[in-house]
Automatic annotation (TrEMBL):
Keywords: Membrane, Transmembrane, Transmembrane helix
Record-given protein name: Amidohydrolase 3 domain-containing protein
One Pfam family hit: Amidohydro_3
Native organism taxonomy: Eukaryota, Fungi, Dikarya, Basidiomycota, Agaricomycotina
One GO MF term attached to the UniProt entry: hydrolase activity, acting on carbon-nitrogen (but not peptide) bonds
Disordered: annotated segments: 1-32, 91-111
Biased amino acid composition, Basic and acidic residues: 98-110
Domain of life, source organism: Eukaryota
InterPro entries xrefs: Amidohydro_3, Metal-dep_hydrolase_composite, Metal_Hydrolase, Metallo-dep_Hydrolase
Matching Gene3D superfamilies: Metal-dependent hydrolases
Domain Amidohydrolase as annotated: residue spans: 469-526
Transmembrane spans: 42-61
């Protein structure tokens, strides 16, 4: 809390120790008792005088009869406390008037040296994100003390750390308006999983701070993403407690009575579980916890009508309590004490947070997706007269902007994903153009992580994608800084660089909207958290060209954006045209072609700006590359100008459920539940003890996920039944995968199924804290089972016996989903054992492979391939905990370490809705490796390398698809796919 002058008092984890009087005999004790008695009499006299003075102020305002009643009132001893509590109802949230004049931050750590960052390009976040200052920024005592020109007198005579930015971009720390950082702690364990409550859809009495785990490994990773926190800063303090990480906590957090002479502080209520705002990486922990979630999330407690009734019922209770407080205070402030004699100020800890909502003192964040739910909440705000600070998720908000404009109290902020749609039914119509559409309608737009749905460390990637799909650069940067800070009522402190603020500061290695932009240094409370020069971390080599310091030039998506609105988010995804004749591609800057035979892989042809070339395609096959092809292009059926674009191989998706389900959270759209042979008996009618089944039998074509992937340049997918997202682990038997064409119309199309049985899959790991298989077998049981199956343990006339025999003989790849380096070491020994006893060679592949870098040399020696799934690592579970984080925390990445040791590596993706981002993952991988990986190697990670490991070379090979990208490289934000060259289909598909 604060006293006069805005000076803070500490918030204690426990009550301050009582002052014990020194022992000195009876005279000393007697003197103290007399002193206490006199002090009590003096205080009582003061209270009486104050009360009389207060009553006198009412005299002119009341009638004679009222004055008569007042004259007979008996003043309670707690009158002043009651009047102070009543007065606090009218306190308006906001900073004290002298906030900008404070000399130090309330989070300042004594001994912290001042910091001068000079020669910077400062994106301040001010003026709706349009303000850019070229100059210096001075940090002192946890505050921004100067921006632009910094007089030398401020720092010349002090021990000041000076950092030369060399013109680099400096921004405020990123603010994540929706994350579960600290309550779903990494690595996830059952003992630190304070995610959700079983006490109903409305629980406004819960506080997420009570479950915040300061040992969450994700905190340090988040800081490496670029910054600060929202309401909770992600810097471990000297006190090492959650409370000491809070910024501007409500006065009532520790039970203290607010000072009515000071402005109130905003409280925050959010849907389900927990709500942290974290800026790159700090985070905001929501002090209040309120399940204002719509639609599917609270379905466990009833249907949509039940949910809305629970909201209305809860707010009605809060309204009754508010009205009771107002009536009580009206009598107290009128001096009618006899009418409330024996009564206490009306309070109920269950509803006091909602009372503050009705008083307009809470920033309410609501989790809704569809118009039915958005409309319902808007009606609720009108009924009970309270504002909404932000709607979260809101996948269909772009379809009903006028509805949201009717929200009581003004338009809310929309907190969105950039492009995470179709994972459940109410997200099915989401649009990647929603940020731009809503901004055009005047809504503040924030991007969020929903960590660990998306990793908080990579929140800037959400802003980058939003910019790629049309959000202007200044609004894209504001979406992860100033907009969420304002939505939380904290823009006077964070999200904007201004004098007197305690915003955190990030120095980037390139423009923050460039793919792979990485913080070089991060300061929280003026204390350097990332980028200590003594760590010798190399960040940003190869980014010296001028274009790296500008926001990327992005394609025009006007037609696509308008189509999403016209078709309610379900615009047709079929191609515009197919051409079986000659097609000439002009102004091509780069060409990557497949090679067969002993030199299988990719060839790379690059042309400079002044001499871009031509590529001729006849009946789907490249027939000519180079300037000499210009003549052949004159009689082409179609000529396409790529404007400095690229032709590259169609990419392969691995690791997601692409092709076997339409909507992840809708079981009715997928294959259904499979039998787990290590958890229960398999029905005899199946005739196979291991329940080995084929993806080929469950494939569905023309799903939106598959078609969106196809249009994004991912033209093939290899899908198994293994599902091990985040911290879960699937059953042991993963079945037989299939490889298919993502754009195929149906299974009977000639080129739809590339390889009906691609590989045999198993999943091996320790039991997770949360699992779909509660009776999961032990790790040792899983290994023993695999050994048994590979050494002819089952009859080869069964599916299990037959396919494991083929895997042991190397006739089919055995892909093992595994994270732990220790388990991989065991599998390497098992591979050697099987090969020695059988005299065969196994084609083993590790997927997921989080800790593979720890034994990269041994994996290479064992000739085992690795598919990193996903490409950027995170300590999801105990088996995943020992990651190689990459810049700015480590020089190496897992990918680079594996390639350096000669391991054949591919990249995979867990979520089907993220498959279209594959090319950006590849481009990012190049940059994270500090350019140790070149473009040709990068393309191979999602094409020919996967073909080698999964034995697809003879099935795809030089007949594989090529994709034409207009505008620039396929591996950055400058281009978009516009055509697919298909030798197997003997045509060019124009998208």
């Amino acid at each position: 809390m604060e006293r006069k002058g805005g000076r803070p008092l500490p918030i204690y984890d426990s009550p301050p120790a009582q002052v014990i009087a020194p022992t000195g005999g009876s005279n000393m004790a007697s003197s103290k008792r007399k002193s206490d008695t006199l002090r009590l009499k003096a205080l009582t006299l003061c209270a009486v005088v104050a009360a009389i003075t207060l009553y006198a102020s009412y005299v002119p305002l009341v009638s004679t009869s009222t004055r008569d009643r007042q004259s007979a009132q008996r003043l309670p001893l707690a009158a002043q406390d009651i009047l102070r509590q009543c007065a606090s109802r009218r306190a308006v949230p906001g900073p004290p008037a002298d906030f900008r004049e404070r000399e130090r931050s309330d989070r300042f750590e004594p001994g912290t040296r001042p910091t001068l960052i000079k020669n910077a390009t400062l994106w301040t976040g001010a003026r709706n994100g349009s303000e850019i200052v070229y100059g210096d920024i001075f940090l002192d005592k946890g505050l921004v003390r100067g921006i632009g020109y910094i007089p030398e007198v401020l720092y010349a005579d002090r021990e000041t750390d000076v950092v030369d930015a060399h013109g680099g971009w400096v921004t405020p720390g990123i603010v994540d308006i929706h994350t579960h950082l600290g309550v779903i702690s990494a690595p996830v364990t059952a003992g630190a999983f304070d995610f959700s409550s079983a006490h109903g859809p409305v629980v406004p009495w819960m506080r997420s701070i009570d479950g915040f785990n300061t040992h969450d490994d994700a905190i340090a990773l988040a800081v490496a993403g670029g910054g600060q926190a929202f309401m909770v800063k992600l810097r471990k303090t000297s006190m090492r407690t959650p409370t000491s990480m809070l910024i501007e906590p409500p006065y009532t957090l520790n039970g203290s009575t607010p000072d009515p002479n000071l402005p109130a502080r905003w409280r925050h209520l959010k849907y389900v579980v927990f709500y942290v705002l974290h800026p790159i990486f700090g985070t905001k922990i929501d002090h209040g916890w309120y399940r204002q979630a719509c639609g599917e999330s609270p379905r466990a407690y009833g249907n949509r009508m039940d949910t809305m009734w629970s909201f209305r019922s809860a707010y009605e209770e809060a309204r009754k309590l508010r009205d009771a407080q107002d009536m009580f205070c009206a009598r107290a402030e009128a001096g009618l004490w006899n009418e409330i004699q024996g009564q206490d100020y009306p309070e109920d800890l269950r509803w006091e947070a909602l009372v503050d909502v009705l008083r307009g003192r809470v920033k309410v964040s609501t989790h809704c997706y569809e118009p039915v739910d958005l409309d319902g909440i808007v009606r609720l705000t009108q009924e009970f007269k309270f504002p909404i600070a932000s709607f979260h998720h809101a996948h269909e908000a772009y379809l009903v902007p006028d509805v949201l404009k009717n929200t009581y109290g003004g338009i809310p902020t929309l907190a969105l994903f950039a492009d995470s749609s179709r994972f459940k039914r109410e997200a099915y119509r989401g649009s990647k153009f929603a940020p731009r559409i809503l901004a055009d309608h005047g809504f503040p737009v924030a991007m969020k992580s929903d960590h660990p749905v998306l990793i908080s460390r990579y929140l800037m990637f959400e802003a980058q994608q939003a910019h790629y799909h049309g959000l202007p650069p200044h609004l894209a940067l504001a979406a992860v800084t100033s907009v969420p800070a304002a939505a939380a009522g904290l823009s006077h402190r964070i999200g904007i660089l201004r004098e007197g603020a305690d915003a955190d500061v990030v120095l980037w290695d390139s423009h923050p909207l460039q793919l792979g932009a990485t913080p070089r240094k991060v300061w929280i409370d003026g204390i350097l958290q990332v980028g200590n020069d003594t760590d010798h971390i190399v960040v940003g080599p190869g980014k010296t060209a001028a274009e790296w310091q500008d926001p990327p030039d992005v394609p025009d998506f006007t037609t696509e954006r308008e189509a999403d609105i016209k078709w309610d988010g379900l615009a047709p995804l079929t191609s515009n045209r197919t051409v079986a004749g000659r097609v000439a591609f002009q102004n091509v800057k780069e060409v990557f072609l497949r090679q067969s035979g002993d030199s299988a892989g990719l060839s790379h042809h690059q042309f400079d700006e002044a001499a871009m070339t031509h590529v001729i395609v006849d009946r789907g096959r490249v027939s000519c590359v180079g300037p000499v092809c210009e003549g052949e292009g004159r009689n082409a059926e179609v000529r396409i100008d790529l404007r400095g674009g690229t032709i590259a191989p169609g990419m392969i998706a691995y690791g997601s459920a692409l092709g076997i389900e339409e909507i992840q959270a809708e079981p009715s759209t997928g294959d259904g539940t499979r039998y787990d042979p290590l958890a229960s008996d398999v029905p005899k009618i199946l005739g196979d003890v291991g329940a080995v089944v084929r993806v080929e039998d469950a494939l569905i074509f023309q799903t939106r996920n598959a078609l969106v992937a196809h249009r994004a340049g991912v033209t093939y997918a290899t899908t198994s039944f293994v599902r091990s997202p985040v911290f879960l682990r699937d059953q042991f038997m993963g079945g037989l995968s299939a490889t298919f064409r993502t754009g195929a119309p149906h299974a009977l199309d000639r080129t739809a199924i590339i390889k009906p049985v691609t590989a045999l899959h198993v999943s091996i790991g320790r039991a997770p804290p949360i699992s779909f298989t509660p009776n999961a077998a032990s790790l040792s049981t899983q290994i023993a089972t695999l050994r048994h199956l590979l050494l002819d343990g089952e009859d080869t006339r069964t599916q299990t016996g037959d396919w494991f025999k083929k895997a042991a003989e190397g006739a089919i790849p055995l892909v093992v989903e595994v994270s732990s380096a220790d388990i991989m070491a065991t599998l390497i020994r098992l591979k050697s054992e099987v090969e020695e006893k059988r005299g065969t060679y196994m084609r083993m592949v590790f997927s997921r492979a989080t800790e593979a870098h720890r034994i990269a040399e041994e994996i290479a020696h064992a000739k085992i391939g690795v598919i990193l799934t996903p490409s950027r690592q995170f300590p999801w579970s105990w088996d995943d905990r020992r990651i190689l984080a990459g810049p700015p925390l480590t020089n190496d990445t897992a990918l680079a370490a594996l390639i350096k040791h000669g391991v054949t590596v591919g990249l995979g993706t867990w979520e089907a809705c993220h498959v279209p981002l594959t090319r950006f993952d590849v481009g990012w991988a190049i940059l994270e490796s500090n350019n140790w990986i070149n473009k040709r190697q990068a393309y191979e990670l999602v094409s020919t390398n996967l073909e080698k490991m999964l034995d697809l070379e003879g099935w795809i090979g030089d007949m594989g698809d090529l994709v034409a990208y207009e505008g620039g490289s396929a591996l950055d934000f400058t281009s978009k796919p516009i055509a697919i060259v298909s030798p197997a289909r003997q045509l060019v598909e124009i998208l």
